[in-house]
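Justification of computing resources. Each target in the renewal requires a structure prediction run like the one illustrated here; the chain below, 246 residues long, is used simply to show the kind of job we budget for.
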Amino acid sequence: MDDMLYIAMSGANQAMLAQGVNANNLANASTTGFKQDLLAFQALPLDDQQVTGRVYTSVEQNGTDMSPGPMTTTGGELDIAVNGEGWIAVQASDGSEAYTRAGSLRLTSTGNLINASGRPVLGNGGPIAIPPAEKIEVGADGTISIRPEGQTPNALVVVDRIKLVNPDPQQLTKGEDGLMRLREGEIAVPDGSVSLVSGALEMSNVNVVDAMVNMIALSRQYEAEVKLMKTAQENDQASTQLMSVQ
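Resulting structure tokens:
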């Protein structure tokens, strides 16, 4: 009975944890550039010299799904999407460099270029700042050109270039802020082969139907584990009654 109860308890606990990750994926199904987290269940032996033959269930985070999400055309002059492989470099809240596929950009009141999460976009020399302009264009190579206020339509001036990188996906890990970083804390070098599509955004790569199916499956798994715990309790009560009769 004790083994049954332990296995059921650990299974129910891990099903709840998996449901939390799946719920987070589902909640970000409409978040620009979001990459869903992957999970895997494992049965592991309990490392205890006093207890033998007992196993427990563990949910292991199996990395991040790096597949691209669908691209949608917006027409916004500060909306960009990475065409194929690659990442946009941004500054995380702790000042470190991180990477994202979320290309919904905007300007602050002081002219700083940030993404939808408020993270500064990095250029050749750090965070990008854009002076007052009547028009802003982002080229396929990340070059930012502006038409200064009061200038003729063909008077375009290059102000900076968005840092685009393409590190090995196996070396990337997602932080709690949803941004990607190199595992060893290194800084990725700019990659000239990465290109952008202006006036478009990459959406989340979460498949809503799959996430809903996973939610139902995890709920049923949790219910089955709870029923198993209830059965273990009933067996224990029956055993106690038999012992009292004797």
